[in-house]
Specification:
Layout: H1 4-13, H2 16-20, H3 40-52, H4 56-69, H5 74-89, H6 93-106, H7 113-125, H8 136-151, H9 156-185, H10 189-202, H11 209-223, H12 226-239, H13 244-268
Length: 272
């Protein structure tokens, strides 16, 4: 689910301090990545240069070298996060998550910790696949973005995370609907009902709720429990009265009442 807007936001929200450290570094050599002992300033400066040149994989490797060759310097902490960011830009999400998590494990109280959590959330978020696929990554995106909003609710990162959480929840609800519809086509009404009920109960603010209520009406009627169908249709009518989903549910209820009246008439007709 990567978009140009998301990538631009990740760039904009990158901690200023982490980037500005490059200005303090020594100007100097540093070619690609031979294993040569170099002073920390040269390494960091070269890594930042490669990042600016969009050579993200090489930049990440050089930032990792800063951490490996100078693990106890203040530069190592910044390089760790910059390496995670470089991996993210290279779409190497596994390495980016690993680097960000390592940063948090070593520096849990650092002022750049919110950005590390945000980067982890972005990495999961951008790997979300369509609802026909397994949604493990989607749940991981929801969990990591939720962790950010819980720990740092007033940060600029949390504000963007909340917007993404809404989209992720809508995606998860879409998966439930997709499975529910599949059960419907097979006449497995109870299994379908459980899926639609999940959408209504757990994803109340998503765009899938009107359809879920209509399909609950449909499923309850098929199961022979018109009272529950009437309740679902009533909720649908109260909250989404002008939708096609409500119109369809209303027609279903009307048709069911017509069948009941016909049955009652047939039962009450005197025997000849």
């Amino acid at each position: 689910m990567r978009t140009p807007t998301t990538r631009a936001l990740a760039l904009a929200l990158l901690p200023v301090l982490a980037l500005s450290m490059a200005g303090c570094a020594k100007k100097g050599g540093g070619k690609d990545l031979p294993y040569v002992a170099r002073d920390v300033g040269t390494l960091y400066s070269t890594a930042k240069q490669k990042l600016d040149q969009h050579q993200y994989k090489l930049a990440a490797a050089l930032f990792d070298e800063v951490e490996r060759q100078h693990p106890y310097s203040v530069w190592a902490r910044r390089a760790q996060l910059m390496g995670a960011f470089s991996y993210y830009l290279n779409r190497d999400y596994t390495e980016s998550i690993s680097s960000a998590q390592r940063f948090l494990a070593v520096h849990p109280g650092n002022r750049d910790a919110p950005y590390a959590y945000y980067l982890i959330g972005l990495c999961y978020y951008e790997q979300i696949q369509d609802v026909t696929r397994d949604q493990k990554i989607t749940q991981q995106a929801l969990d990591s973005l939720g962790e950010l909003t819980r720990r740092y609710p007033n940060t600029k990162y949390a504000a963007d995370a909340r917007l993404k959480i809404d989209l992720v929840r809508d995606h998860l609800a879409g998966k439930e609907m997709e499975i529910g519809r599949f059960y419907e086509t097979r006449g497995q009404w109870l299994s379908a009902t459980l899926r639609f009920r999940t959408v209504v109960d757990q994803y109340q603010t998503t765009t899938h709720v009107p359809e879920a209520l209509m399909r609950l009406t449909e499923s309850y009627l098929a199961l022979g429990v018109p009272e529950e169908a009437e309740k679902a249709a009533a909720v649908l009518g109260a909250n989404y009265p002008g939708t096609d989903w409500y119109n369809h549910a209303y027609k279903l209820m009307q048709a069911n009442q017509g069948k009941l009246k016909q049955a009652e008439t047939a039962t009450a007709k005197p025997a000849s």
